[in-house]
Amino acid sequence: MHVSAKKIAFLGLLLAVAMVLTLIGGYFEPSTLFFMAAAAFCTGIAVRECGLYPGAAFLAAGILLAFFLAPNKLYIITYGGMSLYIYIRELAFEKIGDSRNMRHRTAVFWAVRYIVFNAMFLPVLFFLPQIIYPGPISPIFMAGLIAGAQVILFVYDKAYDYFQATMWNRIRRSLKL
């Protein structure tokens, strides 16, 4: 695996941006999820610009660095989960996009995204519900959380798609990457 010095420098600066966003999210409580999502988007940039293996190294370095820098260690779980989801999403996109004979690529891609998200979210909800909500959770409230999480995933995916398609392309042109 050969990674050029330019890519390593780019990934280092991108990691710094991700950590600044993570730290800002830790200090401005009302906007924590926004900043964590923006920091996780940096993982998608790393994968798209440098490839899967450097993207995996970026993901690991981001989680490790967040462990040392984040004021609230609970944010590491949030940032790590969002970043891991973005990484697996990019991996699935690359693998599904390569299969030319697949008829319903978009449907399969959406199914993979929802399966991955629910494989990460539902165990946390059922086994560690205090992370999500501090009080007792009734079955109706649990069903509402599950349904609400699916809607939030849809919005998160659309925001990520918008970011990659419009905002990152503008920034990319400005940086001449």
What distinguishing features does this structure have?
6 helices; 0% strand; single chain; 177 residues; mainly alpha
What can you see in these coordinates?
The chain has 177 residues and is mostly helical. Helix content is 82%, strand content 0%. It is built from six helices and no strands. Helix 1 runs parallel beside helix 3 and helix 3 runs antiparallel to helix 4. The longest helix has 37 residues. It is globular and about 50 Å long. The model has no long low-confidence stretch (mean pLDDT 88).
Largest sheet: none
Strand content: under 5%
Order of helices and strands: HHHHHH
Separate helix tally: 6
Shape: globular
State the separation between the terminal residues, measured CA to CA.
20 Å
What is the CA-based Rg, rounded?
A: 17 Å
Q: Work out the number of β strands.
A: 0
Helix content: over 70%
**Average pLDDT, all residues:** 88
Please identify the structural class as seen in this structure: mainly alpha
Q: Which consecutive residue ranges, at least 5 long each, have pLDDT under 50?
A: none
What would you say about this model in short?
The chain has 177 residues and is mainly α. The protein has six helices and no strands. The model has no long low-confidence stretch (mean pLDDT 88).
Q: Which helices and strands appear, and what pairs or packs with what?
A:
Elements: H1 5-27, H2 32-50, H3 52-69, H4 74-98, H5 105-127, H6 139-175
Helix pairs in contact: 1-2, 1-3, 2-3, 2-4, 2-6, 3-4, 4-5, 5-6
